[in-house]
Amino acid sequence: MIYEKEKRYIIAFDDVPSPRAEMPEISVDDRRGNFVEVETGFPEALAVQEAKRCLSCRRCLGCALCWAECKPEAIDFDIPDEELDLEFDEVIITKGQDNAFHPLKPELGYGSYADIITDLQFERMLSPTGPTDGIVVSPKDSEIPRRVAIIQGHPEGDENHLLSSLILGVNESILALEKTGELNVVLVSPISQSFKEQFFSDVEKISGLQIVEGVPESVVKKQDGESLTLTYSEDGQSKQEAFDLIVVLTKPKISPEIKLLSQKLDQGIL
Predict the structure, then answer these.
(1) 201-236 residues labelled b (16+ CB within 10 A) or e (exposed)
(2) What pTM was estimated for this model as a whole?
(3) DSSP letters of 201-258?
(4) Which of 144 and 72 is assigned the larger pLDDT?
(5) Do residues 60 and 75 lie in contact, with contact meaning Cβ atoms separated by under 8 Å?
(6) Which residues on adjacent β-strands are paired with residue 247?
(7) Domain 106-249, what fold?
(8) What is the rounded distance in angstroms from the CA atom of residue 50 to the CA atom of residue 237?
(9) Contacts of 35 (CB under 8 A, 6+ apart)
(10) What does 39-102 look like in DSSP terms, one character per residue?
(11) How far apart are CA 169 and CA 21, in angstroms?
């Protein structure tokens, strides 16, 4: 039986293993003249029973939110489960939503200061649907920074990693400069040969972005409220600069499950 309630389509399931437990409550008389919590919570035995019941539903809960967004005919709940054998010429494996990355050196300050974030966090910040509507702000005080450093978290990386992370850093810099006025961005990283040959001349023309071919060494903040001090080496010399926000370019880490799937299918990982 399907019925409509407040423009929502509700499906009555007849195969639920056991009925939902009712929350124990104090009596009406006990509620008078005080602020005692009405619902007392499940006792342990009933809580365990309810948890097992919820974990054995085997299908959707019938909330029908999908029907509320689509036409009722768009979804057929009566289609039986089936297994399909599909043939493909190529299989592309990606890491999906697994945003793990290789550990960063503690000297770079990630995890110690709120105004040091990863490239993934910065990408989310720059998104129009992100937490700041695409505007660059410091997670520490929500202030708009004037100077932002994007630094290489794995300067010892191979050519492919350096190329991909540099492209990401430049793209994020362009978005940040477009959305936040009076912003100055400095990208500090070893420069791969392929990046020099293909992109460097064009990147140098981007107003507000400075490329420094160097190796980040450490980030410190002497007192709370002060700017971050980045120390990096350039042409064998150690230099220091102050920044309001620092973004660390990470190196993605592929999970063992994805690696195993790649081996089984004899396919590389994108």
Answers:
(1) eebeeeebbebbebbbbebebeeeeebbbbebeeee
(2) 0.64
(3) HHHTTSTTEEEEE-EEEEEE-SSTTSPEEEEEEETTEEEEEEESEEEEEP-B---HHH
(4) 144
(5) no
(6) 117, 150
(7) FAD/NAD(P)-binding domain (3.50.50)
(8) 65
(9) none
(10) B----HHHHHHHHHHHTT--S--S--HHHHHS-GGG--TTPPP-------S---B--TT---BP
(11) 53
Rounded distance, CA 17 to CA 58, Å?
10
**Buried/exposed code over 115-140 (b: 16+ C-beta within 10 A; e: otherwise):** bbbbbbbbbebbeeeeebebebbbeb
Query: Over the chain, what is the mean pLDDT?
Result: 83
Residue 213, both tokens = 């071919």
Q: Which residue has the tokens 């001349």?
A: 201
Name the residue with higher pLDDT: 64 or 25: 25
Amino acid at 255: S
Give 221's Cβ-side CA count (13 Å radius): 19
| Full strand arrangement of the beta sheet holding 147-152 | 116-118, 245-249, 147-152, 184-189, 209-213
Q: Where is 149: in which H helix or E strand?
A: strand 147-152
Reported confidence tier of residue 10, pLDDT bands at 50, 70, 90: low
Residue range 12-51, pLDDT digits in tens: 555 556 778 889 999 988 888 777 888 888 888 888 888 7
Structural contact between residues 108 and 250, judged by C-beta atoms closer than 8 angstroms = no
User: Which residues belong to CATH 3.50.50.60 in the chain?
Assistant: 106-249
Q: Which structure tokens are listed for 87?
A: 């043939």
The pLDDT assigned to 47 comes to 87
Burial class (CB in 10 A: 0-12, 13-18, 19+), 170: buried
Tell the burial category of 10 from Cβ atoms under 10 Å away from its Cβ (0-12, 13-18, 19+): middle
In the structure encoding, which two tokens stand for residue 41, read together? Answer: 């919570």
